[in-house]
Specification:
Radius of gyration of chain A: 24 Å
Largest sheet of chain B: none
Structural class of chain A: alpha/beta
Number of helices of chain B: 15
Distance between the termini of chain A: 87 Å
CATH topology of one domain in chain B: MetI-like fold
Number of helices of chain A: 17
Largest sheet of chain A: 9 strands, mixed
CATH class of the largest domain in chain A: Alpha Beta
CATH topology of the largest domain in chain A: D-Maltodextrin-Binding Protein, domain 2
Distance between the termini of chain B: 33 Å
Structural class of chain B: mainly alpha
Helix content of chain B: over 70%
Order of helices and strands of chain A: HEHEHEHHHEEEHEHHHEHEEHHHHEHH
Shape of chain B: flat
Oligomer: heterodimer
CATH architecture of one domain in chain B: Orthogonal Bundle
CATH class of one domain in chain B: Mainly Alpha
Order of helices and strands of chain B: HHHHHHHHHHHHHHH
Number of strands of chain B: 0
Strand content of chain B: under 5%
Number of strands of chain A: 11
Chain lengths: ~425, ~300
């Protein structure tokens, strides 16, 4: 008899708990997928801060699903092919949208864009609005941006070449800086994230290649490129040899192993947050053909198969609000896409970062490079081509022109097979093949 | 006599097949088939078929072997296995013999040496990274004791031998305990009489070890070697943490082809290669260390 009573009590408790949960759950729920915010801390922040406030304000619950690019794209495409979907809003890098457009997966966001502008409390940077126009439709609403910069210890500045301006440095200045540090301390203190999951490949194709040759792909094996690789060999001579295990530069910076580091803003922010007074953020260097940098745009869109498109549009409105954009900057280090949000950055590590970012985008010789688009299923092969070239030339010491010829053949094969167009600063040409 | 034997044959009842053992094994076979054989076949299928047309193709294996890191991956995987496994077996045997002598405090000692088994290879890599990195514990200790002025850079692409040493050291630290536990179990199965008898016959410690203990330990040695070698072929987390892609290994390349290059087909080709290596080495071990029938009967 006692056993029966215990079981009955347990069942009643379970039913109560279940109904309690059902009552407290938000009445409506939408699904938001992304391939951003995958690290655990960023996911926590997204669910507990960013989206929780949206739920508080509107009573609409948000189920946030974030995963690596492969599964993320597969999920959305599978839903669109099935004709019935559960995803209401999706946010991803602008380079992925052509894949979705090719499969007719997304709605035209022009309507949503117009309704946002009608509110008169936000505008978007022109570059991002034009990047959003793909193949005659508005593929996405700009959500946030990121870039890659140089972060340096303030004490290292005294080794900067005399008479030169750190906020407008050239690649020669960087090399000289590293050489000065090496001469004075005997250590190599320039660092790059050359680890397997580090973003060094972006430095190669989006920063130094266009700064020396004016192009990412077309002048891959030009004489200017040969000059650039000779420079990189010398730069490697003053860079920290353990760069091959670095994936997030904030750690070596904090440890003091590296004094001058190049990396993605989100991977430098932890160091700036911990010790904002010790570091300074500098725009990327300039080469003979300008100061090239990559602007990574992340955009929001609503799939065609979305069950709750209007609720999704409300989420987009909330996420692109200037106040939310500042909150995003403070939370995960992704920058606003609206000028209105720029002026309200509080001081501390983020202010240091924001100053570097605006100095970079506002530089007179600035050239924006965009990530390669249109490579579809073979997107993952683009960056390793450049990193392998680096390994062969700078680490294994092979003949520069021979390596460039062999690698450019692979690059050409990749672009011809996918018939992909060039990305700025290359001239628009399809397929994009090295000259 | 022949007539009696013939009658015996006729009287003996026909042998009935006992189905019970087979029925008991059936669930395990079903489980193995569903979660092991089927995915393995699918993985091998991925490696030999074209993703679009489904036709049989060697293209993925060709791509794998034409890759920049392929030859180095095979070379370094074999080198690391060849260096780490013998060290671990010797060290594991030594520790197992020590623990088996039941000195005072041997159970606490056993517990301490077995502790690293619970650490994943990625965690072990991170621990030793914090020791070997320029601002790590090793340099701090050396500088504090006054042996060096400036920190030494151990993890450098310019010296692959040092990278290999760091990896082998970490592996020996982490996985020797597995070998030790298996050998200890085998040692405890050897009756004490044998060792005492050998002592009575005037055999020294070393001779007892060589002629009495080691031959009786052969089944455990075989098990330990097979397990340790197969796991060494799958080594990945430690290598990536300590050496990035400067020391390519087969399991690491499989991972990178899946996650960075996003080609599950070439990743499967690497997996098939690892399977072939592991299978060959296991077969070699089984042949070289097989228990000959005569030894048991004697």
């Amino acid at each position: 008899m006692p056993a029966v009573r215990i079981i009955a009590t347990l069942c009643a408790l379970v039913v109560l708990a279940g109904s309690g949960a059902a009552i407290s759950a938000p009445a409506q729920e939408i699904v938001f997928t992304s391939n951003q915010f995958t690290p655990v801390e960023e996911q926590e922040w997204a669910r507990n801060t960013l989206l929780a406030r949206f739920t508080q304000e509107t009573g609409i619950g948000v189920r946030f699903i974030t995963e690596a690019e492969g599964p993320y794209v597969d999920r959305l495409l599978a839903e669109s092919r099935a004709g019935r979907g559960s995803i209401d809003v999706t946010g991803t890098l602008h380079g992925i949208f052509p894949v979705f457009l090719a499969n007719n997966t997304l709605r035209d966001m022009a309507e949503v864009q117009r309704s946002l502008e009608a509110r008169r409390d936000r505008t978007f940077f022109k570059d991002f609005l034009s990047a959003a126009k793909m193949e005659g439709t508005t593929a996405f609403v700009p959500w946030m941006q990121a870039t890659y910069l140089i972060a340096a210890r303030k004490e290292a500045l005294r080794y900067f070449p005399a008479g030169r301006n750190p906020m407008a440095m050239t690649y020669d200045d960087l090399l000289q800086w590293g050489a000065n540090i090496r001469e004075a301390t005997g250590q190599r203190r320039v660092g790059f994230p050359v680890g397997p999951r580090g973003l060094y490949g972006r430095f190669l194709h989006g920063y130094i290649y266009p700064s020396f040759t004016g192009s990412q792909v077309k002048r891959f094996k030009s004489p200017e490129a040969v000059e650039m690789w000779r420079y990189l060999r010398r730069l490697w001579g003053v860079s920290h040899p353990s760069s091959f295990v670095y994936e997030f530069m904030s750690e070596p910076l904090l440890l003091g192993e590296v004094w001058v580091a190049w990396d993605h803003v989100a991977r430098i922010i932890p160091a700036l947050r911990q010790r904002p007074d010790d570091f300074i953020v500098l725009p990327s260097p300039a080469g003979p053909r300008g100061r090239s940098f990559i602007s990574v745009v992340v955009g929001l869109s609503i799939p065609r198969a979305a069950p709750n498109a209007e609720l999704g549009a409300r989420l987009i409105e909330y996420l692109t609000r200037p106040a939310t954009q500042v909150m995003t900057l403070q939370g995960v280090g992704f920058f606003p896409v609206s000028p209105e949000a720029g002026g309200t950055v509080p001081s501390g590590g983020l202010r240091v970062m924001a100053e570097g970012v605006s100095a970079q985008s506002g530089a007179r010789d600035a050239r924006t490079a965009l990530l390669p688009v249109g490579l579809g299923a073979r997107t993952g092969e683009f960056v390793p081509l450049y990193v392998d070239t680096f390994t062969r030339i700078a680490v294994r010491g092979e003949d520069i022109q021979r390596v460039l010829n062999e690698q450019s053949r692979k690059l050409e094969e990749l672009y011809r097979a996918t018939n992909a167009p060039c990305s700025p600063p290359d001239p628009a040409a399809r397929p994009c093949v090295p000259d | 006599m022949a007539v009696a034997e013939a009658e015996l044959e006729a009287i003996r009842p026909p042998v009935r097949v006992n189905w019970t053992p087979y029925l008991l094994v059936l669930p395990t076979l079903f489980f193995l088939g569903l979660f092991f054989i089927y995915p393995m076949t699918q993985a091998i299928w991925l490696g030999i078929t074209d993703p679009q047309s489904g036709a049989f193709t060697w293209a993925h294996f060709q791509r794998m072997s034409a890759d920049l890191y392929f030859r180095d991956a095979i070379r370094f995987t074999l080198i690391i296995t060849a260096l780490a496994v013998p060290l671990q077996v010797l060290l594991g045997l030594a520790v197992a013999l020590l623990v088996n002598s039941r000195f005072r405090g041997h159970s606490a000692f056993l517990y301490l040496t077995a502790l690293p088994i619970g650490i994943s290879d990625l965690a072990a890599g991170l621990i030793w990274l914090s020791i070997f990195t320029e601002r790590g514990y090793l340099n701090a200790a050396l500088q504090g004791l006054g042996f060096i002025q400036n920190p030494l850079i151990f993890l450098t692409y310019e010296n692959r031998d040092w990278l290999l040493t760091a990896i082998v050291l970490t592996e020996v630290w982490r996985a020797t305990a597995i070998v030790m536990v298996i050998l200890l179990a085998g040692l405890q199965l050897i009756p004490r009489d044998y060792v005492e008898t050998a002592g009575v016959f005037g055999a020294g410690r070393w001779q007892t070890l060589r002629h009495v203990i080691l031959p009786l330990l052969r089944p455990s040695l075989q098990t330990a070697l097979i397990i340790r070698t197969i796991l060494a072929f799958q080594l990945f987390g430690t290598v990536v943490t300590l050496a990035g892609r400067q020391i390519p290994v087969l399991a690491g390349e499989a991972y990178f082809w899946y996650s960075i290059y996003r080609s599950p087909n070439v990743a499967s080709a690497y997996a098939v290669l690892i399977l072939l290596f592991s299978g060959t080495i296991t077969w070699l071990y089984l042949r070289l260390l097989r228990i000959k029938e005569e030894e048991i009967k004697a």
